[in-house]
Write a structure and sequence with these properties.
Macrophage Migration Inhibitory Factor; 90 residues; 20% strand; alpha+beta; three-stranded mixed beta sheet; extended
Length: 90
Amino acid sequence: MPIATIITNVKVDRRAFIASFEKISLHTDFCFYRWANALYNVEGWIIDLQYNEDFYFNGSHDPAFLMYLLGIPDHRGSIVFNDPGTDRIG
């Protein structure tokens, strides 16, 4: 399942933005929606939208974003869980 992490200094309606994510075009000639659907179902994505008012990009605090896209197959990752023991809980 692909993951998109977006960090921005622009306040947006998070739910509306995420719902319309499939319509966002990257700075290329093709629509992100078509590209994403060619690989995956857009509804199957994990989208993490983070607001950071102090986000500083290219010498200014003007509106900006940073975006990471990962499309790593499900079988190529693992979760490590360390049990702290009952003496460390509570």
